[in-house]
Amino acid sequence: MGSRYGGNKQIDGFGPNNETILEYAIYDAIQAGFGKVVFIVRAEILDLVKDRFLNKINDQIQVEFVIQSLTSLVPAAHQNPERTKPYGTAHAVLCAKEVIEEPFAVINADDFYGKEAIERLGAFLTQPQGDNQHCMVGYALKNVLSKHGTVNRGVCEANDNDELTGMTEREKISREGEKVISRMGEDVLEISENTPVSMNCWGFQPSFFEDTEKRWKVFLEENKDNIKAEFYIPTVVNDLIAENKASVKILEGGKTWFGVTYPEDKVTVEEALNFLHQKCVYPGKLWERKKIRM
């Protein structure tokens, strides 16, 4: 909801022609062979999102819109009128289960992941995989910090086969001199700047919906009186790995990332996108009235 940014950063313009960050991921996804894009939005901004995106992309790729609300997939007995906070990323994904039957990627709308990351996701998802073989694109911690404040990141652990073995959410991470530090209360932890972290750049098989739905029902029961509890993708993934019910390949491709957490981040993102246009990574105008699929 962009509380620290101060607005709907997912639909704010950052590119030289007022493009949103998400438009670049959609552009890259079309070129990488993805066939459908699903917007998961709050009902209050549905019309705004449609106005912002639909005319640009509806002749380029199949488009679906899904609502995530405080009552979506929540039985009446578990609905709490005092709750105002969304239920989190895993709940958002679950809201799209009726419109997705194929392997799919999941990204944040306000993060720029880079063309290579989207290509790697597409390559993995179009190859034969087991029903429970998922993937994520890892990013080096040093490349996903903000100059304007602290950030929270899912710090990853991996085995020798580049498979995820677990993630730990680290809070209030920032660079302090030559070190990268996480401060959680009185605990101070130094983290290697090359440590891979999750930026919510995932690739899942359709089985993820069934596995997530089982855990969603448990989450609702355990948190029926907690109006701030959230249901996160990393929590589901950690559980599946711990129970040996899934494997998650960490893909290379996390070379370029930028995003907006604070208002001051906007200038940095604008400059980065302008640079990519100047280097012809993207055309002068992202959406010419022609098919862009390669």
Q: What separation lies between the terminal Cα atoms?
A: 34 Å
Query: Helical element count?
Result: 7
Q: What proportion of the residues form beta strands (DSSP E)?
A: 25-35%
* Low-pLDDT segments, ≥5 res: none
Broad shape: globular
Biggest sheet record: 8 strands, mixed
What is the strand tally? 12
Keywords: Nucleotidyltransferase, Transferase
Domain Nucleotidyl transferase: 18-169
Pfam families: NTP_transferase
InterPro entries: GlmU-like, NTP_transferase_dom, Nucleotide-diphossugar_trans
Give the SSE layout.
Blueprint: H1 21-31, E1 36-41, H2 46-57, E2 62-67, H3 89-94, E3 104-106, E4 111-112, H4 115-125, E5 133-140, E6 151-158, E7 164-176, E8 179-184, E9 187-190, E10 196-204, H5 207-222, H6 233-242, E11 247-254, E12 258-259, H7 265-278
Helix pairs in contact: 1-4
Model description:
This protein is α+β, with helices and mostly antiparallel strands and 294 residues long. Helices cover 27% and strands 26% of the residues. The strands form 3 sheets. Strands 3, 5, 6, 7, 8, 9, 10 and 11 form an 8-stranded mixed β-sheet that branches. A two-stranded parallel sheet has the order 1-2. Helix 1 crosses helix 4 (115-125). The longest helix has 16 residues, at 207-222. The radius of gyration is 19 Å and the shape is globular. The two termini are 34 Å apart. The mean pLDDT is 93.
